Amino acid sequence: MFDVERLVNMAWSGHIRVPHFQRDFRWQRIDVIRLFDSIVRGYPVGSLLLWRRSAEAARLKLGILEIDAPATEQALWVVDGQQRIISLANALHESGAKDSRFSLAYDLRIDQFVSRPQVDEALVIPLPVIFDLVKILRWFGTYPEAADYVVKANEITKTLRQFSIPAYEVAQGDAQVLQDIFDRMNNYGKRLSRAEVFSALFAGHESKKGESLTFDVIAQNVEEELGFGVIDNDTVLKAVLARRGPDTAREIRNEFSDEREPRGTQSGRAIIEFPDEDRDTAYRLGEAGIKRAVEFLQDEVGVPHFSMLPYRHLLIALTRFFAHFPNPDSRNRLLLRRWFWRAAVTGPEIFKGSTTGATRAFCFAVQPDDLVGSLQNLLGLVDRPDTALPDLRRFRSNEAATKIVLCSWWGQVPRSLDDGEPFEREDLSETLFDRKTALDVVRYIIPRHGVPADYRLWAADRVLAPPVDAEVAPLESKVIQKPATIESDKKWYAALASHCITPQMSQLLARDQIVAFLMARQEALQKQLADFLARRCEWKFENTPSLVELLLEDLGEEPGGGS
After folding, report:
1. What confidence tens digit (pLDDT) does each residue in 347-375 have?
2. Which of 523, 486, 483 minimizes the C-alpha distance to 505?
């Protein structure tokens, strides 16, 4: 058992360490508040699992705290309980207030933990004060008007300091054993994402911390090099798994086991096509496959940013494809683009299990050493030419249909209504960065309150326009009259046309005929979307393989090739 006072003092002195295979801190302020509320109510807060072993002297980062930790033979490494320990150590330390998640106080009037006020209030006591016996005495000396609450405050202080948390200590020199314990605990409790469990199981040697690729580093590298935004860890995991084998839902605990069966054979349920790879090689080549897939999306498919990707499973399948066929010729790239848009419009609902089923079907369709067959398999899965187009009456930036619409707008080469110049991909990436939706680059034409309720979700009142100098105001005035920052009417009309706005529509808006404007533009957008998808899906075209590949097959050579 550890009381809170002893636990946080050990954390502050550097005697509690976090292993490199642990996930990052992910609690929000409400989670921290609930922890403290449970403590003062006497509720159980769960047990800790601590690994007792030596630790070198190091500069540690524990939440927002930076600690100069000494070398010790008796450090306690946190296997389970990191979120709770970091929350306690930061919220009860004065430096923790730099992070809003830990900047908390106790309101004596309502008996609740609250956000710490900007200016001290007599009856709202910061946690670092109410936790410290000396500081709480000084507080009441400074605020004598709070004297009636001294007893209550002392009870909170005593409870916080003396609350006991059960802890199990493991003395085990083998890090793999601890990772196994960590995995079993989180598998049974279902508290971690699959990517977090995978990262913990295959964290690599601790001596290489900071050198080996991780899912976070892969996502960061893709963003920094390509400006595609930050891909979530679960998608990165599935992409790495898809490159190595078609079943991304396979058992992950033995992914890099030495007891693998030969290439293309079953090991349990899983087919592993690169059984001799180690962890670092798989991550490195998985990253390379993701980058090739992203470059294809940006340069040829017309998906400029992760937030506009209709479905994440399409990126996973593309990563597998480019891992096995890194340099397909122009005809095969065209067929692959055709597959992408047909799959995006058709959606995963046609597959049993929806997204899971679609991921499985597309990944199994990609067969190593058979480029022609892989493309024909993919296209055969989405041969649905009668699929309905996205509904422009419902514009939601987090929905796949709207993401398809946004990609079609990007294909128009939209221009700024501030200066008339075309937007660049960098304009999107600078604004969106790690956003999960493209909401921040979508602007209203007419203020929302000025649109009748039945039309507020229509695409017709929106344009794809990254804000200039953080300006996010509606663009109505710039649609009605040429801004002074655009030097000619011709350039202004070109900018309007890039958003499917005609001079006639502009006049409707100038006359305050809002519904007429919306209906006219909605019709234009519907035609633009239909034309875009007709060109991209190419439903009426034959899926004839590349003549080069057919010739190679006739000559008995192997087309493609993978890594």
Report:
1. 999 998 889 999 999 999 999 999 999 99
2. 523
Write out 258-272 in H/E/C secondary structure.
CCCCCCCCEECCEEC
DSSP-derived secondary structure letter, 146:
G
Alpha helices, H only, 163-232: 175-189, 194-201, 215-226
Q: What is the distance, to the nearest Å, from the Cα of residue 339 to the centroid of all Cα atoms in its chain?
A: 25
Alpha-carbon span 561 to 358, nearest angstrom: 24
How far is it, in rounded angstroms, from Cα 523 to Cα 516?
Answer: 11
- What span, in angstroms and rounded, lies between the C-alpha atoms of 170 and 76? 9
Q: Which two tokens stand for residue 152?
A: 């209550």
Q: What is the pLDDT of residues 464-492, one digit of tens each?
A: 999 866 566 788 999 999 999 999 999 99
201-212 tens-digit pLDDT: 777 655 556 678
DSSP string, 293-341: HHHHIIIII---SGGG-S-HHHHHHHHHHHHH-SS--HHHHHHHHHHHH
Q: How many helices (H) and strands (E) does the chain have?
A: 22, 15
| CA 553 to chain CA centroid, nearest Å | 41
Which stretch of 145-149, 248-252, 442-446 has the lowest confidence by average pLDDT? 248-252
For the stretch 129-169, pLDDT in tens is 999 999 999 999 999 999 999 999 999 999 999 999 988 77
Q: Decide if 230 contacts 307 (C-beta within 8 A).
A: no
